[in-house]
Amino acid sequence: MRTRYERIHDPFGGSLVHEIVAFDDFAAAFDASLIRLGVDPAHPALDDVRTRLFQKAHVVRCSTWGHVYRADHARHDLRETLASLGVSEARMPSLDAEPVAGRQ
C-alpha cells in the first residue's frame, strides 16, 4: 500500500507527522490483497464488503485531525475486513506489498 508522510496541524497550534494513505491507494491495496488470495476483486459478492470498508474509512478520515486516513488505521481496517471474509492470519497477504501488475 502506497503511503506518504504528512505534517498535520492541530487546532491547538501543534502538529504531528503521520503516515497517511490516499483512498485510491487504499482501494488498490484491497484489490491486490484479494488477487493474492486468488479472489476476483470484481466479484459481485464483494460489493457490500467493499462499501462497508470504504464507508468506515471515510468516517475514520473525517474524524481525524486534518481529514486524513492514517496508514495504521488503513492496515487495521484491511486486516479486519479480510479476516471477516475468512482469511486466517497465516494466509494474510502483506499489505505493504506493491500492487499487482496491471491492477492499479
Considering the chains and any ligands shown, give keywords for the structure.
single chain; 104 residues; alpha+beta; two-stranded antiparallel ribbon; 2 strands; disordered C terminus
Multimerization status: single chain
Total strands: the figure is 2
Helix/strand-derived class?
alpha+beta
The major sheet is characterized as: 2 strands, antiparallel
What's the tally of helices? 3
What Rg is obtained from the alpha carbons, in whole angstroms?
15 Å
- Catalogue the unreliable spans: 99-104
**Share of helix among residues?**
40-55%
Q: Describe it for me?
A:
The chain has helices at 23-36, 47-62, 71-84; strands spanning 4-9, 15-20. With 104 residues, the chain is of the alpha+beta class.
Per-chain topology:
Elements: E1 4-9, E2 15-20, H1 23-36, H2 47-62, H3 71-84
Antiparallel strand pairs: 1-2
Helix pairs in contact: 2-3
Summarize the structure.
With 104 residues, the chain is an alpha+beta fold. The chain has 3 helices and 2 strands; from the N terminus they run ββααα.
